[in-house]
Amino acid sequence: HLLGLLMELHKVNVGSWSYPEAAYTKIAGVPLYSGFMYASVGSYICQAWRRFSLTIEGWPASVLVFIIGGAIYINFFTNAFIMDLRWVIIPVMLVVFYKTSVSFSFRGISMKMPIVISFLLIGFFIWVAENIATLLGAWKYAYQHNGWQMVSYHKITSWFLLIVVSII
After folding, report:
1. Rounded to whole angstroms, how far apart are CA atoms 73 and 165?
2. Residue pLDDT tens, the chain, 168 long
3. CA separation, residue 71 to residues 8, 11, 60, 133 (Å)
4. β-strand partners of 114
5. What is the DSSP letter of 101?
6. I want to staple 100 with a disulfide (CB 3.0 to 4.6 A). Which of 45, 58, 113, 139 is the partner?
7. CA 97 → CA 86, 91, 109, 116, distances in Å?
8. Are strands 17-18 and 55-57 parallel, antiparallel or unpaired?
C-alpha cells in the first residue's frame, strides 16, 4: 500500500492524472485509498496463486529478472522526464520470459500457458476495471476533464508491466 501511494504521489505530481474531488483523506492531492489499488493487485496475485494452485516453470535467471524489474520501476518514475522506454523493456522481457510458463488448475483441470500471456490478460482486465473506475469518477486523466473518454489502450502496457514487477 505504501509503495502504491508513493507511486501515485509521483504520477499526480507530474500531471499524469488527478483526483479532482475534495476529500479529507488526501495527501498532496492523492487520496489514501489510491495505494490500495496497487495493493489489490498483489492481493489478487496471492489469491490466484492459492486458489488456482499456480506453479511457474522455466523462471529466468535472477539477474535478468532483477534487471527487468529495476528497468520497469525506473521507467515508471522517469517516463515523464525522458523517453518512455517501455517499448524497449517489453521486447527484452519477452525474450527473457520466452520459456517461462504458468500452470494452474481450474475445476480439477490442469492447464498451462506462457506466463507473458497471463501478464497480458491480467493487464487487460485491470484496464477494463480502470475504465469503469474513471467512468464512475474515482480519478481522471488529463484528457477526461471535459467529459469521460475511454482510457487509452496504451495503459494496458502499464498494467502489464505492473503485473510483471508484482510477480517478480
Report:
1. 8
2. 677 777 778 777 777 777 777 778 887 877 777 777 777 888 888 999 999 999 999 999 999 999 999 999 888 878 778 888 999 999 999 999 999 999 999 888 999 999 999 999 999 999 999 899 889 888 777 788 788 899 989 889 988 998 999 898
3. 18, 17, 16, 28
4. 101
5. E
6. 58
7. 16, 10, 25, 7
8. unpaired
